[in-house]
C-alpha cells in the first residue's frame, strides 16, 4: 500500500513522501525498508534516527528525521490499525461440519463456521459470522452473539449468555460451578449452583480462564472488558465495563467491580468486596476491603499506592536501620556499665 492509502484509511497527516510503498509492519528497532513502524513514547526517540523503516507513525513531527512520518493523535492505536490492514485475513465462513454434534432446537445465524468435533447442546443460538473451533463444548440453553470466536477446547456450560464480538481463547471454562459449601457436623455440603453467566459485547477472555456460574442470578462480565490468561472469577461476581484483568488474578465470590478498573497480575480480591470506578490495583496486591472510585492501591494487604511506595522505601532500609539500632544499644549498654562502675 502507498503511505497515502494508509493515511486515508486510519487518518492522520503525512510529512514526507506520500507515494512511498509500504509492504510490512514492524517494531522500530527491527524495521526494514518497506516497513512502517511507530513511536509511542519518548523512551524510544533515540531509535527513530537509526531505524531502517520507510515510514514512522508519530504523535508530532520529529525534527531532523528523514523518514516519512504519519502524524496521528494516538500512534499506538494507529499502529494496531495498520497491523489489521496488513495481517488480518478476510473472513471466509467454513460452514457447519458434518462431524459436529448438534442437539435439538439449535438456531444458527448466517455465515457461521462450526468446525469438526465441536459439541453443541439443545436449545442453543449461535449468531451470524460466529466461529466455533474443534473440540469446543457448548451446553444447553446457551446463546452466542454475532461475530464471536470460540477457540478450540473451550467449555461453555449450560445457561450462559454471550454477546456480540466476543473472543474466548482455548482452555477457558465459562459456567463451572461456584465454590459454595455449607458445613454441618464436620462435613462440607455442596450448595447447588443454579445461576448462569452473562458475557456482554466486545469482551475478550484469555486462555485457561475460569468464570463460575452464580449460585442464583448471574455472574456478569461487562462490555468491553478484557481478561488475560489464567484468571479465576468466582460465582456472582459483577465486573463493569471496559475493565482490564491481568493474568493470575483471583476474584472471590460476590465481588462488585466498577467500570474502567485495572487489576494488575496476581491480584487477589476477597469475597464481597466492592471496587469503585476507575480504580487501579498494582500487581500481587491483596484486596481485603472496599476501594472507592478513582483510587490507586498496591501491596498486600493493599494500601494507597503513595503510602505503599514510602513503605517500600523504608522496607529496603530496614537492615541498615537494624544495624544502627544495634550500635546504639551497644553504646547505651556500655554507658550504663560505666555509670555502675
CATH class of the largest domain: Mainly Beta
Helix content: 10-25%
- Overall shape: flat
Query: In total, how many domains does the architecture comprise?
Result: 3
Distance between the termini: 93 Å
CATH topology annotation of the largest domain = UDP N-Acetylglucosamine Acyltransferase, domain 1
Residue-averaged pLDDT: 94
Provide a count of the helices: 3
Low-confidence stretches: none
Which features would summarize this protein structure in a list?
38 strands; alpha/beta; Udp-n-acetylmuramoylalanyl-d-glutamate--2,6- Diaminopimelate Ligase, Chain: A, domain 1; 3 domains; 12-stranded mixed beta sheet; 341 residues; UDP N-Acetylglucosamine Acyltransferase, domain 1; 10-stranded parallel beta sheet; flat
In short:
The protein is α/β, with parallel strands linked by helices and 341 residues long. The chain has 3 helices and 38 strands.
Amino acid at each position: 500500500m502507498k503511505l497515502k492509502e494508509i493515511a486515508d484509511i486510519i487518518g492522520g497527516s503525512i510529512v514526507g513522501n506520500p507515494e512511498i510503498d509500504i509492504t510490512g509492519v514492524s517494531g522500530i528497532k527491527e524495521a526494514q525498508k518497506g516497513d512502517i513502524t511507530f513511536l509511542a513514547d519518548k523512551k524510544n526517540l533515540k531509535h527513530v534516527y537509526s531505524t531502517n523503516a520507510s515510514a514512522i507513525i508519530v504523535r508530532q513531527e520529529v525534527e531532523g528525521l528523514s523518514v516519512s512520518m504519519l502524524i496521528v493523535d494516538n500512534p499506538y492505536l494507529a499502529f494496531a490499525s495498520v497491523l489489521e490492514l496488513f495481517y488480518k485475513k478476510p473472513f471466509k465462513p467454513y460452514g457447519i461440519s458434518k462431524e459436529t454434534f448438534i442437539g435439538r432446537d439449535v438456531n444458527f445465524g448466517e455465515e457461521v463456521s462450526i468446525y469438526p468435533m465441536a459439541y453443541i447442546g439443545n436449545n442453543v443460538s449461535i449468531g451470524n459470522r460466529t466461529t466455533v473451533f474443534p473440540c469446543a463444548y457448548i451446553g444447553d440453553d446457551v446463546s452466542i452473539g454475532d461475530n464471536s470466536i470460540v477457540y478450540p477446547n473451550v467449555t461453555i456450560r449450560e445457561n450462559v449468555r454471550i454477546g456480540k464480538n466476543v473472543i474466548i481463547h482455548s482452555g477457558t471454562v465459562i459456567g463451572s460451578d461456584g465454590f459454595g459449601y455449607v458445613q454441618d457436623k464436620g462435613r462440607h455440603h455442596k450448595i447447588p449452583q443454579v445461576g448462569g453467566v452473562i458475557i456482554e459485547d466486545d469482551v475478550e477472555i484469555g486462555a485457561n480462564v475460569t468464570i463460575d456460574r452464580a449460585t442464583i442470578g448471574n455472574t456478569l462480565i461487562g462490555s468491553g472488558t478484557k481478561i488475560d490468561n489464567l484468571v479465576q472469577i468466582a460465582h456472582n461476581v459483577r465486573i463493569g465495563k471496559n475493565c482490564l484483568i491481568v493474568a493470575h488474578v483471583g476474584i472471590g465470590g460476590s465481588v462488585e467491580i466498577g467500570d474502567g478498573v485495572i487489576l494488575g497480575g496476581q491480584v487477589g480480591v476477597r469475597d464481597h468486596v466492592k471496587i469503585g470506578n476507575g480504580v487501579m490495583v498494582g500487581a500481587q496486591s491483596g484486596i481485603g476491603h472496599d476501594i472507592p472510585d478513582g483510587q490507586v492501591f498496591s501491596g498486600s494487604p493493599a494500601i494507597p499506592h503513595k503510602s505503599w511506595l514510602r513503605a517500600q522505601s523504608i522496607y529496603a532500609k530496614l537492615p541498615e536501620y537494624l544495624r544502627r539500632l544495634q550500635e546504639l544499644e551497644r553504646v547505651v549498654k556500655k554507658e550504663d556499665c560505666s555509670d555502675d562502675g
